[in-house]
Amino acid sequence: MNRSLSKSQSSLQYRATVEVKSKYGAEFRRFSLNRSNPGEFQDFYKLILRLHRLTSIDVIIGYADIQGELLPINNDGNFCKAVSTAPTLLRIFIQRQGIHPEQTSLHLVVQG
């Protein structure tokens, strides 16, 4: 009986948080966010900069959606969508702003 209780507790935890894996260059960082209330994009942006020790540079943040498409995270709306639709892991890719897309492996698809 305890075993089924712990399974349901872990299931609730799955729904409450989303694990995030962010990548900048060859560096990875892991952290978690509250799935139902992830906060605002600007706070997330500052967290990414702090975790990757990025100062005095502007970056573009993107994520891989469930179909594998790379989409931008640049406002509260698409930040909340990225967090709420992530299955178990939200993969974040960070690129210096101003670098031409052909020079990197990060090609962001903007939905119109």
Automatic annotation (TrEMBL):
It comes from the Eukaryota. The keyword RNA-binding does not apply. Keywords: Cell junction, Cell membrane, Cytoplasm, Membrane. Pfam families: PB1. It is found in: Cell junction; Cell membrane; Cytoplasm. GO terms for biological process: centrosome cycle; establishment or maintenance of cell polarity; regulation of cellular localization. One of its GO terms (cellular component) is nucleus. Residues 17-97 form the PB1 domain. InterPro entries: PAR6_homolog (IPR051741), PB1-like (IPR053793), PB1_dom (IPR000270), PB1_Par6 (IPR034868). This is PB1 domain-containing protein. It comes from Oncorhynchus kisutch (Coho salmon).
